[in-house]
From TrEMBL, chain A:
Keywords: Membrane, Transmembrane, Transmembrane helix. Gene3D superfamilies: 1.20.5.2700. One of its GO terms (molecular function) is NADH dehydrogenase (ubiquinone) activity. Residues 137-419 form the NADH:quinone oxidoreductase/Mrp antiporter transmembrane domain. GO terms for biological process: ATP synthesis coupled electron transport; electron transport coupled proton transport. It is a multi-pass membrane protein. One of its GO terms (cellular component) is endomembrane system. Its main location: membrane. This is NADH-quinone oxidoreductase subunit L. Residues 71-121 form the NADH-Ubiquinone oxidoreductase (complex I) chain 5 N-terminal domain. It is found in: Endomembrane system; Membrane. The chain crosses the membrane at residues 6-22, 34-55, 88-108, 120-138, 144-162, 174-193, 213-230, 251-269, 275-297, 309-331, 337-358, 370-394, 414-439, 451-471, 501-521.
Automatic annotation (TrEMBL), chain B:
The keyword Glycoprotein does not apply. It is an enzyme of class 7 (translocase). One of its GO terms (biological process) is ATP synthesis coupled electron transport. NDH-1 shuttles electrons from NADH, via FMN and iron-sulfur (Fe-S) centers, to quinones in the respiratory chain. The immediate electron acceptor for the enzyme in this species is believed to be ubiquinone. Couples the redox reaction to proton translocation (for every two electrons transferred, four hydrogen ions are translocated across the cytoplasmic membrane), and thus conserves the redox energy in a proton gradient. The keyword Translocase applies. It comes from Gluconacetobacter liquefaciens (Acetobacter liquefaciens). NDH-1 is composed of 14 different subunits. Subunits NuoA, H, J, K, L, M, N constitute the membrane sector of the complex. InterPro entries: NADH_UbQ_OxRdtase_chain4L/K, NUOK/Mnh_C1-like. It is a multi-pass membrane protein. This is NADH-quinone oxidoreductase subunit K. It comes from the Bacteria. One of its GO terms (cellular component) is NADH dehydrogenase complex. It is found in: Cell membrane; Membrane.
TrEMBL record, chain C:
PANTHER family: NADH-UBIQUINONE OXIDOREDUCTASE CHAIN 6. This is NADH-quinone oxidoreductase subunit J. It is found in: Cell membrane. It is an enzyme of class 7 (translocase).
Length: 616, 103, 173
């Protein structure tokens, strides 16, 4: 029964995607919404049933398995399409289906007057299906299918409004940059396959434990890290995420905040014994996370577009998760992944509600004073901001970030210090956004109301963003360890907690950040213009990674391409074409339409064939 | 070896075939081309009969019957086309103007 | 001396065939074609296939040739047609086809020379209609059906093509 539910959860949105795509855009909005949100809702329902069953009577092996079919079976390698439900995929499943359902519900309201709504929901449900495949796969090859599936859906949805060139360019950029990572990841998978003879996760990890970590394993780990870095928008392949905000806001909420971009975190957590056996890789993961979280937080401080602020914030928060992974605090990474999905989806959806009501403006300096006009959205955004900043005790973000900080302290106090600095910056940039958008003089008069269908997901996620952290608390506050206990069969016991003053530091820094933000951007005396010095400009452009890549990679590549436009290979194919054309012209003469000529050619062919045939 | 051996019959068939082909290729009149085709068909039929005689099998004559029906059908259709062409304003029955049939 | 009919008929057939393809008047060619068919019937008889010989006379030289004669009559050919045929048969026209046919003849004859000497056929009894009929309505019944299909198709298409011809007019409805 349970093992049967597993493929059904995937099949539900997949079927919906098929129906929506096959309608070829002719399906009216209401059925599109019902099918799109309903199928994911059904998946969420089944996921809850499955989760309850799993928690009440855990399977003896610690995981449910459902092998769908054997994909390929050759000497020395076998691959199956197989699903598995263990605590890690259980958590991910609940996040994907639960948050996914809420966001799709929200999208029903957000997209209701879009003519292409069927295509939108088709892509969204396809994305959910692909993400579930990614999460459920017990075989890395089928995981890779899901990995590419979410990539293509991300591409399709970033460029959803494809009549605007900028959107399409952004989509292409996201696709190409993640493709670089995907290529690395595929190489890594192949390396692992040559070691283990299969890509089954359990067998691969067993090979890691039975064979000492050698250079090959290290290379494979780094290649997989490349894939994870590109997918999760970490330095140095982070440039695509801010541009990806060109897509509709529900897409940003679901794909580029809550689920897809955390796939890299999931991948590393899934293969954590491999990474744990290679200290260099662990250090690299932690450093990448730290650098990303600081750079992205710095960028977020000076952005003027509300969605770009949230995009940089997403990069920064995933940087936290990478930091946690790199310090071996696996539970902390997954915990933060979950809470981040709650509060970042909430923030994006609240931002979407604001954008809808201020005539699709996204510049925060054109908003202002919206707290009175839309108190509900303000409350939701405030809840999300508090969770993101990590307001102590009250919010989910506090607990998960605290856990990461503890892990970082154990690994290296320098990492801890960097992460604490990041937390400080996080509180500043998000409350800068809050103060500028919701307080002060009003620049744009909002119109309309936020409908119930958009409000319900906001309320649900606001509650989750505030209370979702209570499933895991430090011992100093309350000995609750639901998530750690759930995940401990997979990750082992969590680390012991550090001294109490760590907790105090982690609690006070966000408060200090909010205070600084209040001092700088308070309604009466705060500045209402974006900073314009050189450093701010650099940070606003994402530290100019785009320009750097343009100079270092893109331009040499295109120059090389232009130089090489008529190379020998080209000549070869051109010559083939020319020969074919000339031959066509010659043989075309034969088609004169004269019966006797044709008969003559037939006779000549017969004679030649005979002469060849009778040659002694 | 008798002169009436299948090998000699095959020689005759070859000769007839070549002559028929000569007619098809050289004549411009469709009627004459059709007659030449009849000669070629007969050459093929003769080859079958000769083969039947060589192995003393009745299958040769069976195949001859097939060729006979083929030739009958071909003559019927071909002659109908010739009549049609003739009545449609091409009394010369010139095969080389066949490429101007369209329209 | 039993070879005499074979040699005779063969020579007549070969010469008559050459006459067919070289005549300028259609009726002459047609008559020579009848000669070819009749002499071929003789050759068949000499090869021990009396049934085929009879069919050749009755169907080919009879029915099919009558068809040709009818058509030639309907075409209403005259002196001008003969002159045009003469004009079309300029010597230069024959070079290419003759070359091709000659090559074909040489190639086929070379092949025939490689055939090992055959057993004497004249010792064998002729194959009568009975054995042919047994074969035709035994294992080859399907091909008989196919032949009937072919004839039906020929009938239908000839009827269709000739449908709108009215007398010797333009044929346009």
């Amino acid at each position: 029964m349970d093992a049967l539910l597993l493929p059904l959860i995937v099949a539900c949105p997949l079927l919906a995607a098929g129906v929506l795509f096959l309608s070829a855009g002719r399906m009216p909005p209401l059925p599109s919404c019902v099918i799109g949100a309903g199928s994911v809702g059904l998946s969420a329902l089944m996921a809850v049933v499955l989760a309850i069953g799993f928690l009440q009577t855990p399977p003896p092996t610690g995981a449910l398995h459902a092998t769908l079919w054997s994909w390929m079976q050759v000497e020395g390698f076998s691959a199956r399409i197989a699903f598995m439900l263990d605590p890690l995929s259980l958590v991910m499943m609940l996040v994907v289906t639960g948050v996914g359902f809420l966001i799709l519900l929200y999208a029903c309201g957000y997209m209701h007057d879009d003519p292409d709504i069927a295509r939108f929901f088709g892509c969204m449900t396809l994305f959910v299906a692909a993400m579930l495949v990614l999460v459920f796969s017990s075989d890395l090859l089928s995981l890779y299918i899901g990995w590419e599936g979410v990539g293509i859906c991300s591409y399709l949805l970033i460029g959803f409004w494809h009549t605007d060139t900028a959107n399409v360019t952004a989509a292409r950029k996201a696709f190409i940059v993640t493709r670089i990572g995907d290529a690395a990841m595929l190489c890594g998978l192949l390396l692992l396959a040559t070691r283990a003879g299969t890509l089954d996760v359990a067998s691969v990890l067993q090979t890691v434990t039975t064979r000492p970590a050698d250079l090959q394993a290290a290379i494979a780990a780094f290649l997989l890290l490349g894939g994870a870095v590109a997918k999760s928008a970490q330095v140095p392949l982070q440039t695509w995420l801010p541009d990806a905000m060109a897509g509709p806001t529900p897409v940003s909420a679901l794909i580029h905040a809550a689920t897809m971009v955390t796939a890299g975190v999931y991948l590393i957590a899934r293969l954590h014994p491999l990474f744990a056996s290679i200290p260099v890789a662990m250090t690299a993961v932690a450093l990448i996370g730290l650098i990303t979280l600081l750079l992205a937080a710095g960028s977020a401080l000076v952005q003027t577009d509300i969605k770009r602020i949230l995009a940089y914030s997403t990069m920064s928060q995933i940087g936290y998760m990478f930091l946690a992974l790199g310090t071996g605090a696996w539970q902390a990474a997954i915990f933060h992944l979950v809470t981040h999905a709650f509060f970042k989806a909430l923030l994006f959806m609240a931002a979407g509600a604001i954008i809808l009501r201020v005539h699709h403006r996204q510049d925060i300096y054109q908003m202002g004073g919206l707290a009175h006009a839309m108190p509900g959205v303000f409350a939701a955004f405030l809840a999300g901001s508090a969770a993101l900043a990590g307001l102590p005790l009250l919010t989910a973000g506090f607990y998960s970030k605290e856990m990461i900080l503890q892990g970082a302290w154990h690994a290296d106090p320098m990492l801890w210090a960097g992460a604490l600095l990041g937390a400080f910056a996080t509180a500043i940039y998000i409350f800068r956004c809050v103060f500028i958008v919701f307080f002060g003089p009003r620049h744009t008069e909002p119109h309309g109301r936020t409908g119930a269908i958009m409000a319900i997901p906001l309320v649900c996620l606001a509650v989750l963003a505030l209370t979702g952290g209570w499933m895991e608390m430090p011992d100093a506050i309350a000995p609750v360890h639901l998530l750690s206990n759930l995940l401990s069969p997979l990750f082992g016991a969590p680390m012991p907690e550090g001294p109490h003053w760590l907790l105090w530091a982690g609690s006070l820094v966000p408060l200090a950040g909010i205070g600084v933000a209040w001092m700088l951007w308070q309604p009466r005396t705060g500045t209402r213009t974006p900073p314009e010095n050189a450093l701010a400009r650099l940070a606003r452009a994402g530290w100019d990674f785009d320009t750097l890549y343009d100079v270092l990679i893109v331009r040499p590549f295109t120059t090389l391409g232009q130089l090489n436009q008529t190379d020998i290979c080209d000549r070869l194919s051109d010559a083939t074409a020319a020969t074919a054309r000339a031959g066509g012209r010659v043989f075309g003469r034969m088609q004169s339409g004269q019966v006797r000529r044709y008969a003559g050619w037939i006779a000549a062919g017969t004679v030649v064939a005979l002469c060849l045939g009778v040659r002694p | 070896m008798s002169a009436a051996s299948p090998t000699h019959a095959l020689l005759l068939a070859t000769l007839l075939f070549a002559v028929g082909m000569l007619g098809v290729l050289a004549r411009r009149n469709l009627l004459l081309m059709l007659m030449s085709i009849e000669i070629m068909l007969n050459a093929a039929a003769l080859a079958f009969i000769a083969a039947g005689a060589r192995w003393h099998a009745a299958q040769g004559q069976v195949m001859f019957l097939m060729i006979l029906s083929l030739a009958a059908a071909e003559a019927a259709v071909g002659l109908a086309i010739i009549l049609r062409l003739h009545s449609a304003g091409r009394p010369t029955l010139d095969a080389d103007t066949g490429n101007r049939l369209k329209g | 001396m039993s070879d005499l009919p074979f040699i005779l008929f063969s020579l007549v057939a070969a010469v008559a065939a050459i006459m067919v393809v070289t005549r300028a008047v259609a009726v002459h060619a047609l008559l020579y074609l009848v000669v070819v068919l009749l002499s071929l019937a003789g050759v068949f008889f000499a090869l021990g296939a009396p049934f085929a010989a009879m069919l050749e006379v009755i169907i080919y030289a009879g029915a099919v040739m009558v068809l040709f004669v009818f058509v030639v009559m309907m075409l209403n050919l005259g002196r001008s047609d003969r002159d045009r045929e003469r004009h079309w048969m300029a010597p230069a026209v024959w070079i290419g086809p003759a070359l091709l046919s000659g090559l074909l003849l040489i190639a086929l004859c070379t092949t025939l020379r490689t055939i090992p000497p055959t057993a004497a056929s004249d010792t064998m009894a002729p194959i009568g209609p009975q054995s042919v009929g047994l074969l035709l309505y035994g294992p080859y019944v399907l091909s008989v059906e196919l032949a009937s299909f072919l004839l039906l198709a020929g009938l239908v298409s000839a009827f269709h093509i000739g449908r709108n011809i009215r007398g010797t007019g333009t044929g346009e409805p």
